[in-house]
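Quick one, T. Sequence first:
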Amino acid sequence: MHTVCLDMEGVLFPEIWINVAKKTGLKELERTTRDEPDYDKLMHYRMDILRREGITLGDIQAVIATLTPLEGVPEFMEWLRMRFQVLILSDTFYQFAMPLVTQIGSPTIFCHNLVTDEEGMISGYRLRQPDAKKAVVAALRESLNMKVIAMGDSYNDTSMLMAADQGVLFCPPQNVIDEFPQFPVALTYEDVKRYFTEANNRF
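Structure tokens:
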């Protein structure tokens, strides 16, 4: 049985920061890894806005509590579990992700941790490791001798896709499609199933 590694936001769930932007009315927070390839730059940009506006981790978690999987995800995850080992590799944070992944059967997820101050403001973050998605895929292939299919939608997924035996972009923005034409593009979960099945048969 081969392994599938999936991004979370934009692939299985709505983008957290875009929904925070909608709730707060702060369009600045709509900027995501689809727009900015430098993750550290993006996170410091976000933290500066949160600090300026007095938005706490609890405020963000209240928005997250309203989110549900994208349409078709529960059925898609069930299809995957019958055929593959499934890992979620995300550049979000455990403080954001855990309430979400319980909605899809609590698959294993590797992500990062937030740091907060005594007032509940996000004051920093700790990466599990640099380029963590790529590192997990590389370890699965090189140390464990596993075949890996990976799927994501943004700049920060592309190193993971390149490290996999097969990478797939899911509903990516045009700028990512243009810069990474080597990856097939899936626009529906039925497309994904077809690409995954074809890759699985090649292995």
